[in-house]
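The freezer alarm interrupted the setup, so I double-checked each line after restarting. Inputs confirmed:
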Amino acid sequence: MTIQEKLVVSLNYKLSDHKTGEKIEETSTENPMVFLYGVGAIIPEFEENIYGKKVGDSFEFVIKSENAYGTADENQVAMIPLEVFHDENGNFNAEHFPVGALIPMSDNEGNNLRGRVVEVTPELIKMDFNHPLAGTDLHFIGEVLAIREASQDEIDHGHVHGEHGHHH
Ligand SMILES: [Zn+2]
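Predicted 3D structure, all chains:
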């Protein structure tokens, strides 16, 4: 069996920043990445790179930022008045807003999004709404652990059920 549409793929990978070599994340055999191939659940170019591989095959490739999480957009960095972050007593608790923290926010239309704290001043928080990996070229190295047929339910739902998948 080789990787193609409507198969459930388990794999291990290590993701690094291609420019700096810094490790971003890594799966393990106990907690592999498990996904339904070909439904747009993961980065399209990632899928293209593992197409046709079989269990035990390894892979290594780089995906440019523009084909992954996009380039960082300066317009996605906002200066937000500190009052917005006051608690119910009108106080600002700096402990809750360390630099680098991801803070749940909502935009004018009520959509949920997360902003990363870049800087806190006495007047405002500078917050970056770009994806944390925007502007990063992704270097993947890994191995295919398992491939199986998807159930009809999984195909209908567009995601994996059972271990490492959705439970519902
Ligand atoms: Zn489901």
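Quick read of the result. Residues 157, 159, 161, 166, 168 surround zinc ion (CB under 6 Å).
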